[in-house]
């Protein structure tokens, strides 16, 4: 009887996985702080995790194909400065951006925002194409191709603003993005669409097939190159949109924004159960991984833990989660 109970308990732990970890994390921080599970704090966690969730959706598709994208944080920064320049100066934005950034917007907000969204998405898509072409056409490893874009995009962002930033964004815009429900709504919408694409469409099945066995996918008639091309374009486009949202939240288009966001996105994807070897994963799991990262950061901040200590804690939590996930895969529990 005790042996059966132990087996059932092990099965429960393995099947619950990240759900159980998230629950224990929330209980721990509530006990330690007394304010973690308040509505205000939970809404703040959702806003904080929105950008990581959006980036994670694109990163999930890339990693399922067996690739990686180290450039999303830099693409976010480039998109942020270009799209906020549209809000401040209209379309097309001037190059380079004027040194005097304390000016008032020249276009009405209702007219400039649609163009800003378009510029953000196009900037990300073009960067995604820049990543995809060497990978698909020249067989450059994704690590190298996206690492190059990491440097190129961040450099162009600094060049555009001359080392400064695009500041003094309209208060109505920053309030709508930073205080309202817009960011969580966009993040959840991306998760829903990503889940439908991966689970209900031929393109989604092709993504899993390429990541599971690229050679077999090619022999079965799948256009492997096109699948890879489009997942990097999608990942870049989502990074571009994230740049505009993050700029609205912090109140400026800053070339320094998005630092280490590529690592946070990869961490959310891995915590959500997506295999770095490709072929396995889901955007719903990535959403949970992003929430875990957000809860961890918010809880440690409420406890007064310094940011550099938080980095150490988050690193070990990610490592532990990966070890548990690998143990689950290599040692399945039998009834």
Describe this structure in words.
With 335 residues, the protein is mostly helical. The protein has one domain. Helix 4 runs antiparallel to helix 5, helix 4 crosses helix 11 and helix 9 packs across helix 11. The N terminus is likely disordered. 75% of the residues lie in helices and 0% in strands.
Walk me through the topology.
Layout: H1 2-16, H2 18-33, H3 39-64, H4 72-89, H5 109-137, H6 142-161, H7 171-178, H8 182-200, H9 202-212, H10 214-219, H11 224-250, H12 261-271, H13 283-302, H14 307-330
Q: What is the average per-residue confidence, as pLDDT, rounded to a whole number? A: 88
Number of domains: 1
Low-confidence stretches: 1-15
Radius of gyration: 21 Å
The SSE string, one letter per element, is HHHHHHHHHHHHHH
**How widely separated are the two ends?**
13 Å
């Amino acid at each position: 009887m005790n042996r059966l109970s132990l087996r059932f308990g092990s099965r429960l732990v393995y099947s619950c996985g990240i759900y159980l970890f998230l629950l224990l994390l929330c209980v721990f921080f509530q006990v330690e702080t007394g304010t973690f599970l308040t509505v205000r704090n939970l809404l703040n966690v959702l806003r904080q995790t929105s950008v990581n969730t959006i980036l994670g959706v694109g990163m999930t598709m890339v990693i399922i194909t067996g690739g990686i994208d180290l450039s999303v944080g830099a693409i976010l920064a480039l998109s942020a400065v270009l799209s906020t320049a549209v809000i401040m100066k209209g379309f097309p934005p001037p190059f380079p951006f004027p040194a005097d950034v304390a000016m008032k917007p020249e276009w009405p907000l209702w007219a400039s925002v649609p163009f800003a969204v378009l510029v953000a998405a196009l900037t990300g898509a073009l960067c995604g194409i820049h990543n995809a072409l060497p990978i698909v056409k020249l067989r450059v490893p994704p690590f190298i191709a996206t690492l190059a874009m990491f440097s190129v995009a961040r450099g162009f962002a600094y060049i555009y603003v001359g080392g400064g930033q695009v500041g003094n964004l309209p208060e109505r815009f920053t309030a709508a993005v930073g205080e309202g429900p817009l960011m969580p709504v966009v993040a959840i919408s991306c998760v829903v669409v990503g889940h439908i694409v991966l689970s209900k469409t031929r393109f989604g099945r092709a993504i899993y097939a390429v990541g599971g066995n690229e050679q077999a996918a090619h022999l079965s008639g799948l256009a492997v190159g096109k699948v890879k091309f489009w997942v990097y374009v999608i990942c870049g486009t989502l990074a571009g949109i994230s740049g505009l949202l993050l700029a609205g939240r912090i109140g400026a288009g800053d070339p320094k924004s998005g630092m280490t966001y590529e690592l946070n996105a990869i961490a959310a994807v891995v915590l959500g159960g997506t295999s770095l070897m490709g072929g396995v994963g889901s955007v719903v799991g990535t959403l949970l991984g992003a929430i875990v990262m957000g809860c961890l950061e918010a809880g440690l901040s409420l406890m007064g833990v310094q940011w550099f200590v938080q980095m150490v804690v988050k690193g070990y939590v990610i490592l532990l989660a990966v070890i548990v996930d690998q143990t689950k895969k290599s040692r399945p529990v039998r009834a």
